[in-house]
Design a protein that fits this description.
The protein has helices at about 1-25, 35-50, 70-80, 85-90, 90-110, 115-120, 120-130, 135-145. By secondary structure, it is mainly alpha-helical. The chain has one domain (about 1-150). The chain is globular and about 35 Å long.
C-alpha cells in the first residue's frame, strides 16, 4: 500500500504544478483580456495526440456547459475506476486529493481543458452519470460527497 502511494507522489506533485501554472495563466479574467485563454487551447490540443472533447476551445463563461466526447468520458471513467478501492482505504480527505489529481490529469490529456473544467465543475458529474453511473456512485460513497463537483478544489 505504501509503495502505491510513493509511485503516485510524483504524479500528484506534477499535477499540482500543472494546475498552478494553468491557474496562473488563466486566472486573470477580471480584465477584458480573457480571449487570450482561448487562443492557447488549440496549441495544447494539437500536441496531445488524444481525442479532445468537443467545445474545449473556449471557456464556459458564456454559460454554455462544456461538451465532452464519448471517448473522453470513457477515459475519465477508466481513470477513476481503479482508484475506488484506494479511496475507500485512504478515506475522503486523501481520496479528494486523488480525485483532483485524476480530473486534472484527464483534462490535460484531453486538450488541456483544466480551466474550462474548473469553470464548469458539474461537467464531471454529467459525464460520469452518463458514462459510468456505477463508478460515480462508488466514488461518491468512498469520498463522502453529494456530487463529484464539490470534491474539486482546484
Amino acid at each position: 500500500m505504501s509503495s502505491r502511494w510513493i509511485r503516485r507522489t510524483p504524479l500528484l506533485v506534477a499535477t499540482a504544478a500543472a494546475v498552478a501554472l494553468t491557474a496562473a495563466c488563466g486566472g486573470s479574467t477580471t480584465t477584458g483580456s480573457s480571449t487570450s485563454q482561448s487562443s492557447s487551447a488549440p496549441s495544447t490540443s494539437s500536441t496531445s495526440g488524444k481525442p479532445s472533447p468537443s467545445g474545449s476551445t473556449s471557456p464556459t463563461k458564456s454559460g454554455e456547459p462544456l461538451n465532452i466526447s464519448d471517448d473522453a468520458a470513457k477515459q475519465l471513467c477508466d481513470m477513476i475506476r481503479p482508484q475506488l478501492s484506494d479511496w475507500r482505504v485512504q478515506g475522503p480527505t486523501l481520496g479528494k486529493i486523488s480525485l483532483n489529481a485524476t480530473v486534472h490529469e484527464w483534462a490535460l490529456k484531453n486538450g488541456g481543458i483544466n480551466v474550462q473544467v474548473l469553470a464548469d465543475k458539474d461537467v464531471i458529474d454529467r459525464v460520469t452519470t452518463k458514462s459510468c453511473s456505477d463508478v460515480r456512485d462508488q466514488a461518491l460513497s468512498a469520498l463522502e460527497l453529494s456530487n463529484l463537483a464539490s470534491g474539486l478544489a482546484f
